[in-house]
Design goal:
With about 270 residues, the protein is an alpha+beta fold. It contains 9 helices and 10 strands.
Amino acid sequence: MANHQPQLNQMFLALGDPTRLAIVDQLASGAASVKALAAPFRMALPSFMKHLGVLERCGLVRSRKEGRVRMCELQPAAMERAQDWLEQQRQTWEARTDRLTQFVETLYAKELLAMSSTLNPALDLEIVRVLRAPRALVWKAWSDPDHLKQWWCPKPWTTEVRAFDFRTGGAFHTFMRGPDGGESDNPGVFLEVTPMSRIVTTSSLGAGWRPQESWLPMTAFITMEDEGGSTRYTARVLHRDEASRKRHEEMGFYEGWGTCMSQLEAYAAAL
């Protein structure tokens, strides 16, 4: 590509003029005479010919005499050189963007791991349970909304999964109903989805990472580890302040989440 650099410079300089760009647009439809090309422009023919000369010198246009008429046409090879150069730049920038994205995701994952590795008794609630089901089946019960709604809330409450984009940044929205008419609406987002290992959700953000108000702001870390043929399942819930943590505990965190774990265990084992 370096051998074509001077010609590319001339080509992009030529295309930077609106008159010459309009000429190229006309010739994209096919060869045309100088007279036909000049017709739309309010300028003297000598001035118009200077523009054609610039396009010819950079290799974009070639002209030839056909009788008494001078015809002009685009040169595909010159356009291909420009296209190749642009494609090379696109690939370079995409590679840089991919590396930046990977770096940010790795850093973010490390920060999440640090947040979840130490329990703060004043702000966090946690349940650890060994589920008598293989980790692959526990993950399967979690990763499919049709499975999730079967065990997600303590029965006889039922769950409607309104959004389940199971990926980092994807929407996660459950709506629960009780037999006495009670309801619990819980829109949120997946902060992290590490296959077969960890799921992090929050109610403080919605789809597209948009901040939102929640009746109970919290971030939940779900981790799964093999333990023999069973699964060591940990649910740690982070709260913004002691009052939120206390409120969640008094609402029946241990009983409610514990019941859901038992339902998950039974459902996963039967898959």
